[in-house]
């Protein structure tokens, strides 16, 4: 797991390679004087293969810039060859140039074979479009729609996804194949705890297409295509 705040991810009073040893100890790997140098060399080689300056392993986290710190944390996860890393907002609070470098770095850990799959949590659809193949759209903790990224952008199914993509058209240049003109319902957004107690679909208080059944029963997730699911009563056969 790579947290959103990379500064908090690495213990500031230890060099990066020393912190790496602590990670290995936490997952049950025995560290001793005989294998310590070998492990450090492994980390150096990992940094090299990913295009990072190998001398970074001897630095403290506070000596690195935000983008470099983020890449260093991702490199630590890559060196462990984690089966399914979770990156939480990997480009948050970074400038545009640094965001691009971090995204290229994430792509690089795939090219170098360190990971086969990764989960990226983000509210930035434009960022996700550059690095992921499939997208899960969530609202109030519920998965509303899943599909390939380009399918969601070009033809969103769930009313929430439609509004989400519509809101990005002016800023990100997204354009759906279909012309959606949903009527946006402006209501004060309830807190997450209130949303979880809503009867029926969690999005129905703000949905322009809400029906009676939406207010009474929560829709199950159905498969509408080979690679696509949606949780919406509009697509249910009743």
From TrEMBL:
A single GO BP: peptide transport
Alphabetical UniProt keywords: ATP-binding, Nucleotide-binding, Transport
Ranges where the Oligopeptide/dipeptide ABC transporter C-terminal domain occurs: 144-214
Domain ABC transporter as annotated: residue spans: 35-92
An example Gene Ontology molecular-function term: ATP hydrolysis activity
The organism's place on the tree of life at top rank: Archaea
Matches recorded under Gene3D superfamilies: P-loop containing nucleotide triphosphate hydrolases (3.40.50.300)
Database matches in Pfam families: ABC_tran (PF00005), oligo_HPY (PF08352)
Name the record gives this protein: ABC transporter ATP-binding protein
Organism (species): Ignisphaera aggregans
């Amino acid at each position: 797991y790579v947290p959103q705040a990379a500064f908090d991810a690495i213990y500031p009073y230890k060099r990066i390679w020393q912190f790496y040893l602590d990670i290995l100890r936490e997952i049950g790997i025995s560290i001793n004087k005989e294998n310590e140098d070998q492990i450090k060399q492994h980390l150096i080689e990992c940094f090299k293969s990913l295009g990072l300056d190998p001398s970074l392993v001897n630095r403290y986290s506070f000596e690195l810039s935000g983008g470099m710190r983020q890449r260093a944390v991702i490199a630590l996860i890559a060196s462990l060859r984690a089966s399914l890393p979770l990156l939480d907002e990997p480009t948050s609070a970074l400038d545009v140039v640094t965001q691009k470098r971090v995204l290229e770095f994430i792509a690089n850990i795939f090219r170098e074979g360190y990971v086969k799959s990764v989960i990226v949590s983000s509210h930035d659809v434009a960022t996700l479009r550059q690095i992921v193949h499939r997208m899960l759209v969530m609202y109030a903790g519920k998965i509303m729609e899943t599909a390939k990224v380009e399918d969601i952008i070009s033809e969103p199914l769930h009313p929430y996804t439609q509004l989400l993509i519509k809101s990005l058209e002016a800023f990100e240049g997204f354009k759906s194949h279909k012309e959606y003109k949903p009527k946006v319902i402006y209501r004060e957004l309830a807190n997450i705890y209130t949303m979880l107690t809503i009867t029926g679909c969690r999005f129905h208080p703000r949905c322009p297409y809400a029906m009676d059944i939406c207010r009474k029963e929560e829709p199950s997730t159905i498969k509408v295509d080979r690679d696509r699911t949606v949780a919406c009563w509009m697509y249910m056969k009743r």
